[in-house]
Structure formats: structure tokens, C-alpha cells
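In response to the reviewer comment on reproducibility (Comment 2.3), we provide here a single inverse folding case reported in full, input and output, so that an independent group could reproduce the run without further information from us. The C-alpha cells appear first.
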């Protein structure tokens, strides 16, 4: 910034010189111009050397004439900066590790300056005001003091408490960034700024974010403070610090020891201990000092009170003594100037400063009003934008709602159409269901009728089975009677044969022993009587055998008819079962089939007892599968029982019946006859 100010001042000066030369050229006579040009040609260009001036925040380079004094260079720099309060500043350089100020009354090149090209000088404040608010009139002066004091605090040349450093940092941020704006000054915007001394950062274990938060909290309260006002507030706080504006030099009360510090500031001379720079052990105000003298390494301070003790001290070098003496003279002169009536220049500067402050105040007020109006306009704009956005959002939502309503209407129309189709389908299904219901009712009526018929047939079958049982019982009783008759006949035959033999032995004893000697007629006569009785008895036995055979055949015929009847009933039941299985009547038919199965087992399983008469050594094997099982049907077949079981039923036969049956065979002896009754998958029973 000050570089730009310097360039502007230089440009302005060059433009003024150019305008003056152009004016002289326009108004002058030709011979005058000729004389000027001749003198210019004859005049030699002066020799120059380059100088670099380093301020707190900028650098400048100048070309200086060889004969220039320190004041000439200093005035050039002050003009470049636009600085009028020149009595606070000076040009400092470093030689042999010691900081020295350029003397104003001596030539620059005649002084002990560094031999370098360009020669570097630091433009710094050499003397400090007692009250910054009253003495610093120009803004540039105030800004330079602000930058230098800030640097001294950060470099720890001026001690400052941690709380004060945070407050000073907030004013520095206000001077640099202006008013705090949370939308613009986001977290981390102070990351690249050096605002706190390293001693404070080491003393407290806080992160950079925490320090920034503390500084920002103070910074937000400085809203509305201008840059120059923030810098002035910074200097007001800094001038109350103990080390503000004090130049320290090591001294000793004798030539051998250096155990004290001498401090020179705007108020006077202070003596400090080597380890304490805050509280002086002894102070000499400028108003109480009568004389200060310097001779080689000794410096003498004579108080105004002649009775008071003269203070003498020694420094390490003569240059240090001379530097202390210069600082004491300069501070004392400023002290005396502050207590005198201001000069006309100072009065003009103060008047200009007041006018400038009033103008800046009015400007700041105008800017504040404009800023307030702009903020209000921006708020109104934001409100209008928000309202516009809200209206647009509402319009968008209304459009979306309209689209959703249209989509909902289309969806409802589709749903209505689908519902109508579903209603038609339901009506059709209802009609079909009604038809199915009617069909089921008819089927139920039919099934009830068939059930009634089936029950009637079942009762008939049970009656037939009962009749067969009764008939079998009757046949069994008859067989028992026949068996008893047969037994009695055999017993009578045996007795007759025995009697015949007895009679033969009694009447013809010799015939009994020697029958070959008996006459033929008599022998024939004897055996004819027995043969007649035997023939009669054989005829009775044959007649009984024929009757038994006829009864057996009748029983077999009735059994065959009964089986045929059961087959018909089974086929009818099977057909009804297939029809009514779909209607859920399988359980009823299972009960019916179980009852039929039980009756059939009872009718066929209880063979008549007269059949046991055929158990005279022969056996009857019957391979019979139960036609109606006693358990439920499975899903593999309508008849669940697929395995075939064989039941061996022994039957007794009488000897005569065996003989009659054996007549059809080759041998005459009794043989085993096997009658196989088997049920195939086709449910046909054959013998």
C-alpha cells in the first residue's frame, strides 16, 4: 500500500516538474531556450548511488547524489510516503551487529554505513509519543506506528499478557478484514495470519481452531469500527504496556561489571535490573533532569536539584554511549515541544487532521447509512428472493400436485376399468358359482339318493350275509347229523361184520380155519348174506355222500352268486366313489366300504362247519385277498391294498366223498386237493 503511495507521490512530483518545464517552454524566448540547452549540455550529471528503504510492509529504492546528507535522503523518503510528522521517524542501519541511526547533518557516504549496493536502511519510528490519540495526526503516521508496535509485540520485544494479545489480535483483524461476516469469514480464514506471540502459543496448549474461535469472538464485537479507528484502539492498548517505546541498553555503575539496564522513552530515563524490564529501580523524568553529558564510555545525568546525587554509568562501547545520548536529546526535545505552544505548522496539521477526521467521520456515517440501506435492500432482496423461491416452490408443488392428481385420476380410471372388468369377472364367476352350486345341489341330491340306494343295497347284502350265515349254521347242523349217522352206520357195519365172523366161527368152525375145504355153495351162501347187508349199507353211504356233495355244490353256487352280487355292488360303489370323491364324500364311502368289508369277511371267513368234514387228510388252500379293506383309500389307487395275501383254509372231507371225488382221478387213495381263490388287480375273483 505504501509502495503505491510512494509511486503516486513520485509520479505527482514528476508531473509537476513536467508541467513547469512545459510552462517555461511555452512562455520563454528562443534565446533563453538556447541558453538553457547550452547550460544543460555543459552541466555534468551528478554521481549517484542506490539506496533501498525498507518500511514495515514495503520496500523502495532511490538514487541519491553523492553529496546528499542524511536529511536529504530522509526528506525524500518522507515525501515519497506522504509523511509530514517526520520527527518520530529515522533511518536505521546495522553495522558490526549494532543498530545505529543515520545522522541527519552529515553526508550519507561519510557515515559508517554498510558497503553494499544498494545500501539498505530501515525506515522506523525512533521516538514514541506519550499519548498516541493526541499526537499522531496523520493516518500514515498512525498506520506505521501500528505496524511497528504490532511487529514488536509478535517478536516479543514488548511483553503483553495473553488476554491483551487476544484483544489486540481482534483489533488487528478488524483493521485488516473489516466488519465480521459469518457468511464470508468462514472457519480457518485466520490460518495464514500471525496474530499471537509464540510465547503465548507455547504457554497454552490450545489448537489453532481454539485460538481462532477466541479471536473471532472479540472480532465480532468490533462491528462498525473503521480501519484507522481499529489501529488507534490497538495503539491505545499498546501504549499502556510497560515495555512500550523503551530502548534498552546494558550499562554498569563501574567499568568492570554490566549488571543494569538503561531504558530511554518519551517520559525519561529509567534504570532496570538485568532480570526485570517491567519495574524500574530508579527513574529520571525529563522535567527533573538538568544536564546529560557524555565522555567516551561514561554518561552523566545531572538532576535539576543541585543537591541531588549525580548519576554516572558506563557502557560497553563509545558508540553505545553516543546512541544513548542521541536518543536522550531527541526524546527530551519532543518532551519540551509537547509542553510548548504548537507551531503554526503543527496547528495547521492538527486542523487538517480534525477536518480529515470529521470528513472521515461523515464519510463513515454516510458509508454506514449506505451500508445499512444496502443491507436493508439486500435483506429485502433476499426476502423477495425467498418469497419468490417460496412462490416458485409452491407453484412447483402445485404443478407436482396437479401432475400427481392427473396421474391419480388416470390410475383411478384404470382402477375403475379394472374394477369394472373384475366386477364382470366376478359376476361371471358368481354365475358360474351359482351354476356350480345348483349342480352341487343336484349332485348332493343325487348322492343322497345314491347313498340311500347304497344303504339299501348294503342292508340287502347284510341280509344276504345273515341268511348265508343261518344257512351255513343249518348246513353245519345237518353235517353234524350226517356225520353222526355216518359214524353210527360205520359202527353198525363194524358190529355186523363182527357178528358175522362170530356166527361163522360158531356154525362152521372148520370152515373158519380151513375155508378152502368148504363147499362152494355154502361158502357163497354165507358171504351172500353179509354182502347183501354190506351192499345195503354202501348204498346208504353213497346216498349220503351224494346228498353231501349236492349240498356242497349248492353252497358253492350260492357263494358264487353272492360273490357276483358283491362284485356288482363293488363296481357301483367304485363308480360312485370316483364321482363323489370330488365332492368330499370319501369318508362316507370309506365307512360303507368298511361295513361291506366286515360283512364280506364275516360271510366268507366263517365257512360252514360241515365243510370240516373234508379234513380227512386233505387240505384246501385258498389264496384270497380281502376285497374291501378296513382302512381309508390311498391316493395311488382307488383300491389301497395292492399286496396279495394267501389264506390257507383247511377243509375236511368224508371218506365216501373222498372216494367219489377220487373216482375222477387216477389213483384210488386219498389225495390233497388245493382250491385257490385269488383276487387280481382287475378285482375279478375266480376259483
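Designed residues, in position order:
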Amino acid at each position: 500500500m505504501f509502495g503505491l503511495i510512494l509511486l503516486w507521490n513520485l509520479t505527482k512530483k514528476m508531473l509537476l516538474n513536467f508541467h513547469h518545464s512545459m510552462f517555461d517552454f511555452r512562455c520563454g524566448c528562443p534565446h533563453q531556450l538556447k541558453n538553457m540547452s547550452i547550460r544543460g549540455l555543459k552541466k555534468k550529471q551528478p554521481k549517484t548511488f542506490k539506496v533501498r528503504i525498507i518500511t514495515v510492509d514495503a520496500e523502495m529504492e532511490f538514487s541519491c547524489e553523492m553529496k546528499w546528507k542524511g536529511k536529504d535522503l530522509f526528506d525524500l523518503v518522507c515525501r515519497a510516503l506522504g509523511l509530514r510528522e517526520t520527527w518520530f521517524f529515522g533511518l536505521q542501519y546495522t553495522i558490526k551487529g549494532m543498530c545505529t541511526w543515520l545522522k541527519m547533518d552529515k553526508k550519507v557516504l561519510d557515515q559508517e554505513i554498510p558497503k553494499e549496493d544498494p545500501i539498505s536502511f530501515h525506515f522506523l519510528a525512533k521516538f514514541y509519543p506519550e499519548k498516541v490519540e493526541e499526537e499522531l495526526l496523520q493516518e500514515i503516521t498512525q498506520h506505521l506506528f501500528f505496524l511497528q508496535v504490532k511487529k514488536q509485540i509478535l517478536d516479543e520485544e514488548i511483553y503483553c499478557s495473553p488476554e491483551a494479545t487476544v484483544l489486540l489480535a481482534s483489533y488487528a483483524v478488524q483493521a485488516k478484514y473489516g466488519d465480521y461476516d459469518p457468511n464470508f469469514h468462514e472457519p480457518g480464514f485466520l490460518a495464514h495470519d500471525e496474530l499471537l506471540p509464540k510465547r503465548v502459543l507455547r504457554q497454552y496448549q490450545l489448537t489453532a481452531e481454539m485460538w481462532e474461535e477466541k479471536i473471532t469472538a472479540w472480532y465480532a464485537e468490533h462491528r462498525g469500527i473503521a480501519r484507522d479507528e481499529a489501529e488507534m484502539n490497538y495503539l491505545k492498548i499498546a501504549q499502556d504496556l510497560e515495555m512500550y517505546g523503551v530502548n534498552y541498553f546494558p550499562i554498569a555503575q563501574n567499568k568492570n561489571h554490566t549488571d543494569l539496564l538503561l531504558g530511554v522513552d518519551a517520559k525519561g530515563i529509567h534504570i532496570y535490573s538485568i532480570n526485570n524490564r517491567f519495574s524500574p529501580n530508579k527513574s529520571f523524568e525529563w522535567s527533573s533532569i538538568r544536564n546529560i553529558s557524555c565522555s567516551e564510555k561514561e554518561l552523566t545525568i545531572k538532576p535539576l536539584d543541585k543537591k541531588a546525587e549525580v548519576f554516572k554509568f558506563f557502557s560497553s562501547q563509545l558508540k553505545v554511549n553516543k546512541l544513548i545520548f542521541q536518543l536522550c536529546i531527541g526524546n527530551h526535545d519532543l518532551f519540551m515541544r509537547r509542553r510548548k505552544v504548537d507551531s503554526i505548522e503543527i496547528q495547521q496539521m492538527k486542523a487538517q487532521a480534525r477536518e480529515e477526521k470529521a470528513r472521515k467521520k461523515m464519510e463513515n456515517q454516510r458509508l454506514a447509512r449506505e451500508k445499512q440501506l444496502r443491507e436493508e435492500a439486500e435483506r429485502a432482496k433476499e426476502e423477495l428472493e425467498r418469497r419468490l423461491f417460496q412462490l416458485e416452490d409452491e407453484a412447483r408443488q402445485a404443478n407436482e400436485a396437479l401432475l400427481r392428481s392427473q396421474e391419480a385420476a388416470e390410475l383411478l380410471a384404470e382402477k375403475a376399468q379394472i374394477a369394472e372388468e373384475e366386477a364382470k369377472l366376478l359376476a361371471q364367476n358368481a354365475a358360474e358359482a351359482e351354476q356350480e352350486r345348483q349342480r352341487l345341489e343336484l349332485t348332493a341330491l343325487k348322492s343322497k339318493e345314491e347313498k340311500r340306494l347304497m344303504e339299501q343295497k348294503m342292508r340287502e347284502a347284510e341280509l344276504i350275509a345273515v341268511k348265508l350265515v343261518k344257512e351255513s349254521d343249518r348246513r353245519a347242523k345237518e353235517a353234524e347229523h350226517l356225520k353222526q349217522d355216518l359214524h353210527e352206520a360205520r359202527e353198525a357195519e363194524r358190529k355186523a361184520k363182527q357178528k358175522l365172523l362170530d356166527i361163522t366161527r360158531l356154525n362152521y368152525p372148520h370152515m373158519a380155519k380151513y375155508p378152502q375145504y368148504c363147499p362152494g355153495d355154502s361158502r357163497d351162501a354165507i358171504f351172500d348174506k353179509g354182502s347183501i347187508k354190506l351192499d345195503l349199507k354202501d348204498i346208504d353211504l353213497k346216498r349220503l355222500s351224494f346228498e353231501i356233495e349236492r349240498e356242497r355244490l349248492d353252497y358253492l353256487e350260492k357263494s358264487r352268486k353272492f360273490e357276483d352280487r358283491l362284485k356288482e355292488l363293488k363296481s357301483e360303489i367304485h363308480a360312485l366313489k370316483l364321482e363323489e370323491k370330488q365332492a368330499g364324500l370319501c369318508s362316507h364311502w370309506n365307512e360303507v366300504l368298511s361295513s361291506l368289508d366286515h360283512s364280506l369277511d364275516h360271510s366268507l371267513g366263517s365257512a360252514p362247519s360241515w365243510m370240516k368234514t373234508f379234513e380227512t387228510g386233505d387240505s384246501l388252500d385258498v389264496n384270497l385277498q380281502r376285497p374291501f379293506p378296513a382302512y381309508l383309500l390311498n391316493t395311488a389307487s382307488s383300491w389301497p391294498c395292492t399286496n396279495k395275501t394267501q389264506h390257507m383254509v383247511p377243509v375236511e372231507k368224508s371218506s365216501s366223498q373222498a372216494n367219489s371225488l377220487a373216482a375222477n382221478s387216477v389213483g384210488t387213495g386219498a389225495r390233497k386237493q388245493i382250491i385257490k381263490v385269488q383276487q387280481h388287480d382287475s378285482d375279478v375273483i375266480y376259483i
